[in-house]
Each structure stands twice: as structure tokens, then as C-alpha cells.
Amino acid sequence: MIRFILSKFLYLIPTFIGITIIAFSFVRILPGDPVLLMAGERGVTPERHAELSAQLGYDQPIVLQYFDFLGRLLQGDMGNSLVTKKPVLDEFLTLFPATVELGLCAIIIATVIGVTVGVFAAIKRGSWFDQISMTLALVGFSMPIFWWGLLLIIFFSGILGWTPVSGRISLLYYFPNVTGFMLIDSLLSGQKGAFTSALSHLILPSLVLATIPLAVIARQTRSAMLEVMGEDYVRTARAKGMPQYRVIGIHALRNAMVPVVTTIGLQIGVLMAGAILTETIFSWPGIGKWMIDSISRRDYPVVQSGLLLIAALVMIVNLLVDLTYGLINPRIRVK
Amino acid sequence: MSETSNLAAPVKLSDAAIRRRMLAEFWFYFSQNRGAVIGLVVFVLLVLTAIFAGIIAPHDPTTQYREALLVPPVWAEGGNAQFLLGTDAVGRDMLSRLIFGAQYSLFIGIVVVSIALVGGIIIGLLAGFFGGWIDNVIMRMMDVILAFPSLLLALVLVAVLGPGLTNAMIAIAIVYQPHFARLTRAAVMSEMKREYVTAARVAGAGNLRLMFKTILPNCLGPLIVQATLSFSSAVLDSAALGFLGMGAQPPSPEWGTMLAEAREFILRAWWVVTFPGLAILISVLAINLMGDGLRDALDPKLKRS
Amino acid sequence: MALLNIKNLTVKFATATGSFTAVDGIDVHVDRGEVLAIVGESGSGKSVSMLAVMGLLPDTATITADEMTYDGRDISDLSATERRHLIGREITMIFQEPVASLNPSFTVGFQIEEVLRLNLGLSRHEARTRALDLFRAVGIPDPETKIDAYPHQMSGGQCQRVMIAIAIASNPRLLIADEPTTALDVTIQKQILDLLMKLQEDFGMALILITHDMGVVAETADRVVVQYQGKKMEEADVLSLFEAPQSPYTRALLSALPEHATGDRLPTVSDFFSQEVAR
Fold it and tell me: How many helices (H) and strands (E) does chain B have?
């Protein structure tokens, strides 16, 4: 098992190096002079410009700059934001929990609803439930979520006035940041209404973010269940006189989950892309909005490191999914 | 199953009769899927709208009617028969902008899929055909591209290249290309083991001829399905880039860009937000419905005997 | 009195090209403690009729019968719960592909203990003890280790033994074995057959053996039903069948046995059929 994990891990190293090269070289060709940007409105004399360039290492040959970048990366130094002057990693870590909270909620919604719908659609194949849910799944799969988010805001915030339009919690509440998850922190604070406020801020963005993964998971679960239910061992379970809930919920579902777990894992990348749009629409202070803002402000170090961190994150999640796949599929585990 | 194996079997496609039978069989399976046929009809309508946009559209998409700002659709209170779907914040006719927007979406889809398809096929063929270290290096590079969330990578690419429609299309095509490369490579590697390839090689076919004339036609099925899916994703992603201000620039009537301009009016004028998104959804849905039908008709594994 | 009695059973499948009749007016009856063999080539509907009894056919199948009784009880329209009390307790079944018939995601122990706990109400501990006993009874070597193995870690023969252990776990009165040895190596086939016969005798249960192998029939059965293209060709006790086959199809089947072959080529059923028709 340890060798299995290790081999998977080693396999990732070349990909990771590739990611650093891409993150590094992209930002090198971004238009705009970082030194001028740092100097801000006042401008800079040519002497001061050269001095700053040397200080930042921009006068070095590009290959040296790359190895310098890689070396500092390995020490956890990702440079400072040109706009806020704070270390990029600190900014990332401050904003990261917001995205995780949003993404986690979305993936939980998508998995719970998606798997349930998929299983029932498969059992009742051809029924009105199957047809309607699979049509809706295709609509969800085709949904421009930035528009979907706006529609939900129009309806729930504009017409019904039920949910707030943006942010993570009402300004009325202030409490210490313990876990970084607003839902948990608001509970810990013990302030009346804080949790409800956090929840009402979270519900629409996570629904929007969950839409596409939900559709994909429902479709995948249905087709996996249909395939598995034709297998000999499901017939055996029936021949053993097992009740329907055990035949479907244990014998069939357990095997159908093998491809579904892979699908859920693959949704993490989709989720990160979705987070960029969702966070922009709902002004959610997370990584996605941070990246968009940094791109439009040409904040080189942030774009560079953000790109790198997100790709590394997706890579690690995919590795974890791979390992889970090994765990839930005994046929792989033994090898 | 015996009939359906035509698609994958090493049949020389020279005979027009065989080709006609394959087409008839394809159409049989495709037309069994009601959703696919609906998708096809909507898509054809969309293409016609795009082609004849200049004739159908009641107004010029960029003309600003200063006396008619944010006019609601004709059926709503305060609507005006001159502007069937209302006007936007600077008095442009929504319907005309939506009609011209179809041109953008289809154009983007075609360009992105063409670039990604051609690039992916060439890269995949090289990797699958030569194998060894060439394969290793190429596929590693594809892995790296796939490690990034596609929209994020496209965003940064556009930021590097400069915002605009052309750059957005190039960026999306680059991000999609590995999927085609992987598919082609896998198909090539499985086809390479078949006897007909060996036979062609023995008969003295050169590498290029082998790659493009012998092997490629037999891997087309999955590529066509992937192309359809990429087409719909391209429409979605380019709209997303437009929405984020990185795609087509105002005053282009691109649907995503229109949404971006409409954002500040969402609580005042629902129509400026609703219609462009609906147009995106319907187009993407139609293409995806077609994609489902194509997959059923082209994938012999799923066919019922 | 017959344990299982079926009269005029017909099974039709709805397919894309119309209705297909897999079983056409078959009568089957089996007495307590009797071994009945149902013989026929693949596609003769011999499995389908038994799957119909078990209620294991897909929804596309339409089952009709004049009579369908088990132990004098009508089983043609049982509710799902009533059927479950019969299937897996009184009537059990084993299948052709033992490895595919066991769930790859669970240990074989889980799959047998599940039956013991749910059908017989044993506790977790009792179920484990009883499962080990059953594994010993069907001749699985080193049952304490094997009970925690997954199906893919065992050979086909061992998997079939597990299936048999599951099938006899609730002391059934009727065991249906659908081509139980076809997917196994020749040397294992004999062992599994011997095991089935021994258990049949020990437990005094009735056994319906579905097979295409006349050799298996000769060794095991009391009575034989020969089926061809969904119809019953012949029914006889095993001795008279082999000595004086009545239907031309049975004669054809018997002539296709290697030990009856004359000349340098093994005859096939269709060879004989064409001869019979020519006569």
C-alpha cells in the first residue's frame, strides 16, 4: 500500500515541475512592467528602475530567474503582492478557507442529491422521474452558471428578499476567526443569528457552484447503476432473498460508486473554475475572486503563485481520489 | 452487433454503397433518440439565424436609441412593439443583439473546435504512432495542461495575450487540445495492434499514409463525440470569459459580454439579464443533446444488438 | 407429491424487434429429494424457466403459466416480501459463472453471513461460526483464512464452493444449479458435481440440474427433461432416456457424445437433424 502511494506520488513530480514552468513563464510574458506597477502613480527615475529590477532579480537571465523562483518556492517564499505588499502565501491562506467552505458545501450538495437522483432514476428506468431528472441533469450540465447565479439573485434576493446579495456574513456580526469556516465560527461565537446569517449568505453561491457537478454526478451514477444492476452478483443477491434495499443500496451501489468516486474527484477542477465565476457574482472573498482581481490588476506574483497553488491543489486532490479509488476497489488494492 | 462493427472494422471506405449504408445505420440510431433530434433542429435553426442575422434582425445591433433606454419586452408593462424583447441600458434592441450574438457563439465554437481538433489529432497521432520517449514527453505536457482548471488557464492565457475575442478563442483551444490528443493517442495505440495496420505496413505504406489514411479514419467516432462536447463547452467558456471582461469586448453583441454589461441592472431590468443567458443555455443544451445522440449512434459498445 | 409443479409455462421477452418467446409451454415437476436434469443446448430456454420460478427475470419478461406451485402453494403471484421468504430460504440457486456471481466488493464471509443473519436471524458471532462450518462442509481448505478473502483472490472452483455454501446455508428443500460446472476446469467439474450429489443426499433436498452435458446427466439425474428452442422434447427417467430415446432431438444429442462417435469427425446435433428430416 505504501509503495502504491509512493509510486503515485513520484509520478506527480514531473507534472508538478511542468506546472511551475507554466506558472513562471506565463507571468514573464504578461504585458506591463512590474517595477512601474510597484512604483505606482508617482513614476520612477531610470536609475531607481534599474535598482529595483536588480533587487527583484528581473535583470538576470530567464533560466536563472526560474531556478531562483523554484528555490524560493521550495522554501515557501512566493513573493509579495504588488498591490497589498503582503506575502502571497499569507493572502492565499487567509482567503483559502472561504473557497474551501463554499466548495465543500457545493460538493456535498452535488454528491448527496446527485447520487440519490441517479440511483432512483436507474431503478425506475424509463419512468417519468427518470425522464424528468435526466432532462434536468442535461440542463444543469449545459448551464452558464454565471447567469444562473444572477437569476437566483433576481429571484431570491430581488423578488423574495430572502437572501443577501454578496459576502459571507452580515456586517452586524463580528467574531474571531477560529477555523476560517464561517458556519463553524458563527456557531462558536454564540452570537444570536450569526449562524443563520452565515448560512443565508452561503446557500445561493453553493447551489450555483453545485449545479454542474450535481448534473454530472447524477448522470454518471445512473449509468453506473444501470450497468451494475445487470451483473451476475446482483442476481445472486436477489437469489439469496435479500430485500430490495440491500440489493440496491449495498450490493449494487457499492460497485457503482467506484466510477462515481472518480467522477466526483474530477469535479474538483470544475469546481475551481466554477468558483472563479461564483465568487465574482456573489462577491465571495475567496481564491477565485482573488485571482480575477489580481489578473485585472496585473499583480504578477499573485497570479503566478495563485495559478501554481490552485494547480497543485487540484493535483493533490486527484491523487487523494486515486488513493480512495484503490481503497474502495479491492481488485486494485491487492495488486 | 455484427452489423454495427462496420464502424470499427477495417473496411475500405472506397465503396459508396457501404458508406451509404453506414450513414443510414447512423441515422437510424441517431433518430431513435428524441432529444438528439430536437437538439439537431434547434442547432440548425441557430445556424440559420446566424447566417441570415442581417435579414432577420429588426435593428442594427449597435444602434443606440437614446429615447428608448431599458424598455421592457413587448408583453410587459411599458413594452414597445418596436423592440420585441426590449432594449438595454443604452437603448440597443435586445432581439437584434441576441440574433447577431448567435454568429459569435457559432464562430467561436467552430474556430475553437477546429484548432483544438487539428492540434490534438496531430499531437495524438505523433505520440501514439511513435511511442517511446516522444510519447512520454508529449503526454506529460498534456498532463500539465490538464492539471489546471480549464477556465483559469484560459483566463491567465488571455491576460497574457491581451483581452479580446481572438485571444480568448486561442486560449480556449489550447486548453481543450489535450483531450483530443489523449483520445487520438489511445485510439491509435489500440488500432496499431490490429492486423490491417500490419497489412498496410507490409504492403509498403509510408508513415504519413499509415497515420492519416489508414489509422485516423478508424478513430473518428470518439473524436466526433468529443468535438461536439467541446463545441458546447467552448460556447460556455467563451461566454464566461466575456462575462469576466476577458473575451469579446463591448459593444460586440456576444452573449457573455452582454451579460457583463447587464449585471448592474439585474434588480431593475430582468430582461437584459434573462435573455442573453437563456440564449447561451438553449444553444449549449441543443449541442449537448446532439452530442448524447451522436455518442449513442457512434459508440458500438452502447448499441443494443 | 410434487415439491415444485409447473404447468404450461411460457416466458416472452419484449425486444426492440418485437416479442421473443424463450420458453413455450413447458411442464416441469420435481419431487422431494429427487434429482431432475434439464438438458438442452444454449438458447433452449432451460435457464429462463428456472429464473422465472425464482422471480429473477428482468422487467421485459412476461411470464404466464397454468399452474405454478411449490409444496402445494401457488407461487405465481407472490408479493415481493412473500417471494423473499421462499427464495433464498426454501429454494436456492447457483449459477454458471461462480466468480462473477459473487460481489467483488465484499469478502465471501460477508456474503454468506449476510444470508445467515438476515434469513435465519443469527447473531454476528453465530453467523461466523456457522459460515465456517458450511465452508468446511463444501470442502474449502483453510476456511478461517478464506472467509476474509475477496472473490477475485479465489479460484473458480473455490468460488463455486462458496456459492454452494451460500445456497445450502438455510437448509433449502430445492436447489437449482444452472450449469454449475460449465465455467470450471475439467478436473474441478467432477469434484463440484460429487459435492452437489453428496449434499443432495445428506440434506435430502431436491436438485434441479440445468446442463447441456449428457455425461453429467448420466452420472447424476433420476429423471431428465430434454428441451429444445423453448419446447419440451422429451421427459423420461434417466435409464430409459439413454436406452430408448423417443424424440429425434434426444437421439441427436446422444449421438453427439464423443464415446458414440464413429468415423473421424464428431457429429453435431444439426447433422442428425438433417438426417432425421431427410428420412
Answer: 12, 0
